[in-house]
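Reminder to self: tokens first, then the designed residues, so the page reads top to bottom the way the pipeline ran.
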């Protein structure tokens, strides 16, 4: 009997979840110029609003990881999708700095469980030798989705204004939350998966039996000793710092990039939407190249250290080329350096594979929570720091700041991660 391929249908559902997730993070970036003009926000105030999402998204990462242990992805993801999308709709009715800041914080809080759920679902549904590819595919949703959505979101705003933009994007998320609840099931509960596929997943190291998640961890109370454990290993700190660096460039593109093109480089609003889509396409190409290349090398017998780490290191070093935009003036060259940098970020974006590969088996979810927590610090730090660095009207220092963080991330993988092997604990 040939294995069914239900896991790929599940991967498609996650892919769409990620597209909607990042659509509701980046809609503010599209609306930023109009919002700033209407409410007369300074660059510092705009930086604070850009960061608001990450304050609560970060704060709820570890609680989100705990929730992933206790609730089915089917229920938790549906609740998360619908609640963050409702908060997005209400942003269309914001009256000023405080209400917009608060609503962005609400969106961040409700999105917090999303990526720990993604990691759990992929760990349940995919064997080890397909996991990097699966992570690459769903991670690519943030890039491919936004590549095509940036012009669309710009058009929506052009016709219905920035308030209508939030309403439309929020309604899409509410509807998709219902779709997820109707179609998602865990492996052992899915009516269309056959025994051959279940055996393929389990024999390949997939956690589809749920014992590491639903049976054992969901009944085990959170212990501070577990948190201390995942904060006490050099290897894990290597991937935590690396994730901060990867997310730093990503958050520049999710927040300041459209405003940079319009207000600091003089592109008109509609054209900026098309120009802004090019780096996202480059990042999409980067993440797919990285994931499939990594799995290909593993299948060919290349060591995990080389097959998993090198794409991340190379990608982070490529991201430093964002500096080139400081030395050119034509739109084509500006976008070239931006696209090259974002290709590097995409190439480095299989970092979640190290949560599954390095973390103690009984601590995968909480490791994922800490990993995302530290990574999302960049969503607070980067928009605010850029707001201050650009307050004098010169954006060049901000791009230098992003490049330095990318270099720092490459160094963390070179010097801290070491051999790629699962950490063993006494428990």
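Designed residues (427 positions):
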């Amino acid at each position: 009997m040939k294995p069914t391929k239900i896991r790929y249908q599940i991967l498609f559902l996650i892919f769409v979840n990620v597209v909607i997730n990042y659509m509701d993070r980046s809609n503010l970036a599209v609306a930023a110029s109009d919002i700033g003009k209407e409410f007369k926000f300074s660059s510092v105030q705009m930086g604070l609003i850009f960061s608001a999402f990450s304050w609560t998204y970060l704060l709820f990462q570890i609680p989100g990881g705990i929730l992933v242990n206790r609730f089915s992805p089917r229920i938790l993801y549906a609740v998360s999708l619908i609640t963050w999308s409702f908060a997005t709709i209400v942003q269309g009715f914001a009256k000023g700095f405080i209400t917009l800041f608060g609503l962005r914080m609400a969106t961040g809080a409700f999105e917090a469980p999303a990526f720990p759920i993604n990691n759990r679902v992929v760990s349940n549904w995919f064997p080890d030798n397909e996991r990097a590819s699966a992570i690459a595919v769903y991670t690519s949703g943030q890039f491919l989705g936004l590549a095509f959505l940036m012009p669309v979101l710009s058009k929506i705003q052009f016709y219905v204004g920035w308030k209508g933009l939030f309403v439309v994007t929020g309604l899409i998320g509410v509807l998709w939350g219902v779709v997820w609840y109707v179609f998602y099931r865990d492996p052992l509960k899915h009516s269309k998966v056959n025994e051959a596929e279940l055996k393929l997943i389990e024999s390949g190291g997939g956690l589809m039996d749920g014992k590491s998640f639903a049976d054992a961890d969901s009944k085990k109370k959170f212990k501070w000793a577990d948190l201390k454990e995942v904060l006490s290993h050099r290897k894990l700190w290597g991937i935590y710092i690396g994730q901060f660096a990867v997310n730093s460039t990503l958050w520049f593109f999710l927040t300041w990039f459209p405003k940079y093109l319009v207000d600091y480089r003089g592109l008109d609003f509609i054209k900026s939407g098309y120009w802004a889509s090019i780096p996202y396409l480059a990042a999409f190409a980067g993440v797919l190249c990285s994931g499939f290349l990594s799995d290909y090398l593993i299948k060919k017998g290349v060591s995990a250290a080389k097959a998993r780490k090198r794409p991340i290191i190379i990608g982070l070093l490529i991201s430093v080329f964002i500096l080139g935009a400081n030395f050119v003036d034509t739109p084509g060259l500006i976008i070239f350096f931006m696209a090259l940098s974002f290709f590097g970020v995409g190439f480095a974006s299989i970092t979640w594979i190290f949560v599954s590969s390095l973390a103690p088996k009984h601590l995968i979810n909480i490791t994922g929570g800490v990993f995302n927590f530290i990574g999302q610090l960049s969503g607070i730090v980067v928009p605010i720091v850029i707001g201050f660095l650009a307050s004098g009207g010169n954006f060049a220092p901000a791009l230098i700041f992003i490049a330095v963080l990318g270099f720092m991330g490459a160094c963390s993988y070179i010097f801290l991660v070491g051999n790629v092997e699962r950490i063993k604990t006494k428990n």
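The CA atoms of residues 164 and 222 lie 42 Å apart.
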